[in-house]
Amino acid sequence: MRLIYLLLAYLFIALAIAGIVLPGLPTVPFVLLAAWFSARGSERLHRWLYNHPHLGRILIDWEQHGAISRASKILAVLMLAISWLVMLQQVDDVVVLVLAAIFFIGLSTYLVSRPEPG
């Protein structure tokens, strides 16, 4: 089971890294999932995540305060908006566009409502 957790931790780290450059793919949720799975799969990887200069701050802020930085919030909401605009150009199904908009608005609202690290 530890091997499965470890593989999932690496998968979510890869997705988080991809989320940095790909619009519509979030980073923070994948970092949080990577931390959760690494805690069960590899103590070494878990320590590395928490000691990482960028990812560690995200994890500590979330764990201690449920907080997301203002820069992360702005970037996330901006990426969601860009993703929806790309979908608007590429997707002809109105139902898909409406459902995506509802989901993106809900996610944006949740992100913006989170406290900021102090």
Quickly describe the structure.
The chain is mostly helical. Helices cover 81% and strands 0% of the residues.
Describe the fold and architecture.
By secondary structure, the protein is mainly alpha-helical. The chain has one domain. It contains six helices and no strands. Helix 2 packs antiparallel against helix 3, helix 2 crosses helix 4 and helix 3 crosses helix 4. The model has no long low-confidence stretch (mean pLDDT 91).
Features:
118 residues; mainly alpha; 0% strand; globular
- The pLDDT mean sits at 91
Report the total helices.
6
Radius of gyration: 16 Å
Amount of helix: over 70%
Order of helices and strands: HHHHHH
Shape: globular
Q: Count the beta strands.
A: 0
| Chain oligomer state | single chain
Our measurement of the CA-to-CA distance between the termini, rounded to an integer number of angstroms, reads: 37 Å
Strand content: under 5%
Would you identify the regions where 5 or more consecutive residues have pLDDT less than 50?
Answer: none
Backbone structural class:
mainly alpha
Counting structural domains, the number is: 1
State the major sheet: none
Write the layout of secondary structure elements.
Elements lengths: L1 H20 L6 H14 L1 H9 L3 H11 L4 H21 L3 H20 L5
Helix pairs in contact: 1-2, 2-3, 2-4, 3-4, 5-6
